């Protein structure tokens, strides 16, 4: 699929939105970069910053269990973006859902910004920083409790170590969430894929379940799925979606 000129691409996207009322959005870290949250693989993303250990190592289950102090140092510094606010992409998706156009958001992000913008049907493939549980008694703690803790947060009730409800490397995705994501994607008329390089599996593999009418790909960089898209827009997703009228 060749990349359209920006104005023509927006016109085509507007027509797709106007003509369909069963749209699903599949998004990644690029959706939140316009809110000031770094992605992972761009030039200034997390994977290109220097720490004592590579981010892939720090964000693994083994590292968390063996070295929780270093894990939480990185986590507090780079993963807890509690002052971030929804951007134009988050707000437009919530508006599309309110209008009955968008049926679900399937996200790889853990920041909760879709819900903050007003989206209700959000399937979080990789969990959320806003949910945290004691590993011993399973007591719930919000992100504020974890953010305010010095070093490793511990449970007020039993003293157990608290773990964010985020999927670390070596951990499996929640099967109920996966099945629900497969269901909404496989029943969608339109799949809008945005802000993702589509290299993180198994999440990226969910795209294969789409068999609807149109697949739209909005991402600043190239992906392995560019040729399969019915409409390819290589621009920041917030700048693209804010131009779409909901009617």
Automatic annotation (TrEMBL):
PROSITE patterns in alphabetical order: SIRTUIN
Chain positions recorded as nicotinamide binding sites: 40, 110-111
Cofactor(s) annotated in UniProt: Zn(2+)
Primary localization class, coarse: cytoplasm
Recorded GO MF terms: histone deacetylase activity, NAD-dependent; NAD+ binding; zinc ion binding
Superkingdom of this protein's organism: Bacteria
Catalytic reactions of this protein: N(6)-acetyl-L-lysyl-[protein] + NAD(+) + H2O = 2''-O-acetyl-ADP-D-ribose + nicotinamide + L-lysyl-[protein]
Gene Ontology cellular component annotations, sorted alphabetically: cytoplasm
Alphabetical list of Pfam families matching this protein: SIR2
Residues annotated for NAD(+) binding in this entry: 29, 33, 40-41, 108, 110-111, 126, 196-197, 219, 221, 237
EC number of this enzyme: 2.3.1.286
Family note: Belongs to the sirtuin family. Class U subfamily.
NCBIfam families given in the database record: PRK00481.1-1, PRK00481.1-3
The protein's name: NAD-dependent protein deacetylase
Gene source species: Wansuia hejianensis
């Amino acid at each position: 699929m060749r990349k359209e000129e920006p104005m023509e691409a927006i016109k085509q996207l507007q027509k797709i939105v106007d003509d369909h009322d069963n749209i699903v959005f599949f998004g990644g870290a690029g959706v939140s970069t316009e809110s000031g949250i770094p992605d992972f693989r761009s030039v200034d993303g997390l994977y290109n910053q220097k720490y004592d250990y590579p981010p892939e190592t720090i964000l693994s289950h083994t590292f968390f269990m063996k070295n929780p102090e270093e894990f939480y140092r990185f986590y507090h510094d780079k993963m807890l973006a509690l002052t971030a606010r929804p951007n134009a992409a988050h707000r437009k998706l919530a508006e599309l859902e309110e209008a009955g156009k968008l049926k679900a958001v399937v996200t790889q992000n853990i920041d909760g910004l879709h819900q903050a913008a007003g989206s209700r049907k959000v399937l979080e493939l990789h969990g959320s920083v806003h949910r945290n549980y004691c590993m011993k008694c399973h007591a719930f703690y919000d992100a504020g409790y974890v953010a305010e803790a010095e070093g490793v947060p511990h449970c007020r009730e039993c003293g157990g170590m608290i773990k964010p409800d985020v999927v670390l490397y070596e951990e499996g995705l929640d099967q109920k969430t996966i099945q629900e994501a497969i269901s909404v994607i496989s029943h969608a008329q339109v799949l809008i894929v945005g802000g993702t390089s589509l290299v993180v599996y198994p999440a990226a593999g969910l795209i294969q379940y789409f068999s609807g009418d149109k697949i739209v790909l909005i991402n600043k960089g190239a992906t392995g799925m560019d040729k399969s898209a019915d409409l390819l827009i290589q621009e920041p997703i917030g700048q693209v979606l804010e131009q779409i009228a909901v009617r």
